[in-house]
Amino acid sequence: MTQTIRFPDGFLWGASTSAYQIEGSPLADGAGPSIWQRFVHTPGNIRDGDTGDIACDHYRRWEQDVELMKQIGLQAYRFSINWGRVLPQGRGAVNQAGLDFYDRLVDRLLANGIKPMVTLFHWDLPEALDNQGGWLNRDIADWFADYARVMYGKLDDRVTSWATLNEPWVVADGGYLHGTLAPGHRNRFEAPIASHNLLRAHGAAVKAYREMGGKHDIGIVVNIEPKYPATNSPADVDAAARAHAYMNAQYLDPVFLGRYPEKIKDVYGEAWPEWPAEDFELIKQPIDFVGVNYYTRSVNKDDALAYPVRATPLRQTSATYTETGWEVYARGLTDTLTWVAQRYGNPPLYITENGAAFFDPPVAEGGRINDPLRVDYYQKHLRAIHDAIEAGVDMRGYCAWSLLDNLEWAHGFSKRFGLVHVNFATQERTLKDSAYYYRELIASNGKVL
Ligand SMILES: N#[N+]C[C@@H]1[C@@H](O)[C@H](O)[C@@H](O)[C@@H]2O[C@H]12
Is 167 among the catalytic positions? Predict the structure, then answer.
């Protein structure tokens, strides 16, 4: 007898995007370039030479896209603000046209009963700030707080959910250690500095919100990937612990516990600086929720040559893998959510991203796009979330990644995560079968699982 699944009353069902991945028009109407403008136009950085110059053309088609959200029945829409569209130099003069774009979007979402969930930073740092050191300059905590104040001042009368950062780990690891993401640095001494300043900026933006009397929810969005040892050998167990400290605990420990996990020094070694104690007072500002981005897990083998964590993920022979090479492992989501709940005092949690890139067939007769693997992925992961709820985790909502097929960073347009297919040549949108399935899920509050 299959269990009837019921999600809590008021559980919020949404979908997520980010500015640079969907908006296009990166320099329109006075916007200042982000570090992605330079990065995507540097040959070799993005597959097929794809760029965000047009992307999903959302900056011009946003009304059509809100209609799509309504058609799917979204209760919430998580999106990010392009910092440089609002502050072209990252600081100082406000670009009114940029602010007006987000103002109109928020009003239209609310008019359609869709809750805006705003992320202030989703990787598109203004180039002008990067030219002043960007995340390597300790002043960026103040620059970010000033930008946050501009957005709070404009939208906090209607936006009730703020996230400061999206996935600081990816910014530090991809942007400063491995160079696979903008700004493309490869420096093991820079990565912890960027990571620490991202957390300081988070704390400064939360502090600014409280000081202005903000009464709504503010939190942080982190990617969490549970790390399992390949064997019970001490070497593999320790390898998994290093990988966990590096990707997972390095972010929520400072935010909730006011300190880094001890193991992080073993990860970075000589590249790990000592930090001023007052930094942790700033970072650990009380927050109202954690956004968890979950995609997969990794099974780790000790590997002395794999910097910085000295652990290598092992492919699981019997598993299904997505187009991005990620194992489909829904149990890892339950383990992740119970870990966060147990370690940090059961804070309110949202899944702010969860989804999969699979090869989608062409649009069939009648305009249908059959994507059963994506439907199966959602079904498995929502069941895993329900298991966490049954275990007492305070789950408040779920945002599918992503509303639209979009620019998958260095993958270009080759990896499609959308509930909605985008023909990037014509900008035609087509709901995939997974969008129709998600619509039923929302309408039944998860009962059709
Ligand atoms: N790759 N991938 C999909 C997805 C990416 O498109 C988002 O921008 C990130 O927040 C996070 O990495 C996850």
Answer: yes
